[in-house]
Amino acid sequence: MTMTANLDWENLGFSYMKLPYRYIAYYRNGQWEEGQLTEDATLHLHESSPCLHYGQQAFEGLKAYRTKDGSVQLFRPDKNAERLQRTADRLLMPQVSTEMFVDAVKQVVRANEDYVPPYGTGGTLYIRPLLIGVGDIIGVKPADEYIFTIFAMPVGNYFKGGLTPTNFIVSADYDRAAPHGTGAAKVGGNYAASLLPGKIAKDKQFSDVIYLDPATHTKIEEVGSANFFGITKDREFVTPLSPSILPSITKYSLLYLAEHRLGLKPVEGDVPLAELDRFTEAGACGTAAVISPIGGIQHGNHFHVFYSETEVGPVTRQLYDELTGIQFGDVEAPEGWIVKVD
Ligand code: PLP
Ligand code: COI
Prior knowledge:
Layout: E1 22-28, E2 31-32, E3 36-38, H1 50-53, E4 57-59, E5 62-66, E6 72-75, H2 77-90, H3 98-111, E7 124-134, E8 145-155, E9 166-170, H4 188-203, E10 209-212, E11 220-223, E12 226-232, E13 236-240, H5 249-260, E14 265-269, E15 279-286, E16 290-299, E17 302-305, H6 314-327, E18 338-341
Bound molecules: pyridoxal-5'-phosphate and 2-OXO-4-methylpentanoic acid (COI).
């Protein structure tokens, strides 16, 4: 394997970078045409494409990891394919099969392999699949034609602190999703709804927003860009269960690892804002966020500190080591979690 790109791998942050190749496939006449790699980073869309007007679009996020022996691997890409299929169903878009999805991801990673960060730098290749409804439709109805495209870029930390805790703020005034809306689907509209509360949070120096359940505003749902988890005094790994949060692949992986590798009790259930004292540690988890410890949460005039504002808690660190150990190939993975790109 080669490694020719010359980048500051340790300090990548989370920014767009144009890589040489991306994948694109068109859906026309009721079926997917053969996709291909292209160097063209610009999409050419009809002005009345439903993705532009009515938000008929979906995306995914996953990563490729460089292992110690120099090979490259993906973490549970089939789960991203399945989530994209569920999102497609919700927005009346055609499904991309798991086989087509994983094959296209591999093509993009292989074609841009020089940009998969070296092992040990903490960097990864972030992969962004995108499915959009296009064509000349002006009534509110699903498109007849679709584009499925995948691009990628090397990334480092999403939240500035990495494994150093950062602080989050509860959004009292805005929700990201409705109780039975599209919160569980990975659609751009959820993120459009989060831009304003996200800006308010960042202007106040918080890393991101914690959203409450949209029906009662009493329970934690998730972070704008990641799921929430807490560790209780009696060694429970607790994450909110709700139809309006994004089912995080990282979160489900952590529920499994917490139980089977760390001996914690995995719990999906309500996380009332009034009961934060239960938690000795808390964190945000997701593909981009990995595991980002939450130092404290601002809610109105109250600031609740979990483990510490400066130190990661021991269980969060253990979970981080187990998860990233698996992703980078240093720790044995549960069956089917790792897909090699060869
Ligand atoms: N919640 C939201 C709103 C997200 O954008 C993400 C990122 O994908 C997650 C949770 C985490 O999901 P995953 O672990 O599948 O990346
Ligand atoms: C991801 O973790 O893949 C996400 O989609 C989060 C995104 C908001 C950067």
